[in-house]
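Model it.
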Amino acid sequence: MGNTSPEHQLNLGEITIDSQGAEALFYCTFPSAGNLQLILQDALGRSVMTEEFSADETTKGLTFDVSNLKAGSYHAWIYINDLVFVRHFNLEKKEEQGLIGRFRSMFK
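Modeled.
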């Protein structure tokens, strides 16, 4: 058994959110082709999203839509083969300005 070089290992980074709060980027690299399941839970442990991805050696990151989620804390449960990983992130939403933004904020 030899050591596996770093470029051929599973590497899971953090989840970052774009400046608009609409898309999440999960930095990751994979040693071979496979499937990944992501289950997103809110701060109360309720499942709010489930996504499935296919990845391979060329994958450097995965994106998923968070535009319909409310601002708050989330945990992403990541299932790859028989392995489970958890990543935490906070989602902040910018308040809309003007009359429409004030009107929408009345119904939050």
